[in-house]
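no rush on this but wanted to send it before i forget. theres a chain ive been looking at and ive put its sequence and its fold in token form underneath. i want to understand how the tokens follow from the sequence so walk me through it. thanks a lot i owe you, the record is right below:
>
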Amino acid sequence: MVFEMTVQMRVDDFREGLRWYIMLLQRQPDFEPHEGIAEWEIVPGSWLQLAEGTPGKDSGPLRLGVEHIETERHRLVSELDVDEFSIYTRDEVPVHWATFKDPWGNRLGFFEYKNKDEEKERIQAILGKRKGEAE
């Protein structure tokens, strides 16, 4: 039985990578087990691990759900110098999505639910609270 997951992104400059991912995720890592490794629990049981090493070629993307993809695009372009961030949509797909790269070539992305009621239901199902409730 699978009950948790960890996705690893590798960077060849760990200090700079840590700084970049802290800005991307807007918080410090939840766990740093040893030098060259930092981890964030994105949602319960789902971890993003940053590791010092050679980045994988053409891996990903790892897409993260956000409430406002346009706001995140503006933030990444201004704060992290992300230059390729196009937002896509299709009528038959329930989300808008975008893919971008970190400075080491790792492919990441965001997605935003088109239907905000569906988004609220997903947030409650995953986090066990309603959107906007205090932690």
